[in-house]
Structure formats: C-alpha cells, structure tokens
Amino acid sequence: MHGMTIAGVSPVGELVDVFVIYEDGTPAHMQVLAGTEPMLSRPGAFVSRAEYGERVRELREGTAARVAELEAADEAHHRADYDALRAAGVAEDSARRLSGYGGA
Predict the structure, then answer these.
(1) E strands along the chain, which residues?
(2) How far apart are CA 2 and CA 31, in angstroms?
(3) Residue of 6, 27, 25, 23 whose CA lies nearest to 15
(4) Cβ atoms within 10 Å of 44's Cβ, excluding its own
C-alpha cells in the first residue's frame, strides 16, 4: 500500500506497514515510521501480513456466505408470494410482477 501524502509535507523517516487484529476480530493495516510502535486505540495484537491477509479472507468468505443466505431467503420469500398469488388465481405475468419472483 502506498502511503498517503499531503502536499508540501514529507515524512521524517521511512514508512512501514503494520498489521493488527483487534480483540473483536477486526483487522487493521496502518503505516508508521520505521522503528516506532503505534499506540492501538483498543486492545489488539500486532500480526504478520499473512495473518492479517488470512483474517481479511475469513471475513470476506463469511460475508459472501451471509449474502448467499440472504439472497436464498429473499428468493424463497418471492417464490412463496408468487405461489400464493397463483393459487389465488392471479395470472402468471401479474403474479411474477407483484411478487418480484423471476425463477422458473
């Protein structure tokens, strides 16, 4: 990651990447001056780039799984509405439009 620069301001030393995983599992990546240890805003542990990357991957996979669950539930809801409308005698095109169901 390239450091953020402010026009007319130069760092007083070399910036290095530091990785943290906080107690709540939140990963963080920051840049600090070489040879300094940043103060953490809350309890956490400094970790390697690989550990940080693994935690980010875990979070992305968990998010993708949750999104898939929500999408499946949404699809099931639309299908149930569609089926109820069809059972009530609503024409297929209208039932699809009213329910938002787009499946087969």
Answers:
(1) 15-22, 27-33, 44-47
(2) 9
(3) 6
(4) 16
Write down the pTM of the prediction. 0.69
Nearest C-alpha neighbor of 24 from the set 50, 39, 45, 38: 45
Q: What is the DSSP letter of 2?
A: P
Pairing of strands 15-22, 27-33: antiparallel
Query: What CA–CA distances, in Å, run from 4 to 18, 35, 54, 71, 75?
Result: 15, 19, 25, 37, 43
Tens-place pLDDT, residues 27-73:
999 999 998 889 999 999 999 999 999 999 999 999 999 999 999 99
Spatial distance between the Cα atoms of 30 and 45, rounded to a whole number of angstroms: 13
| 34 close to 18: Cβ distance less than 8 angstroms | no
Collapsed DSSP state (helix, strand, coil) of residue 17: strand
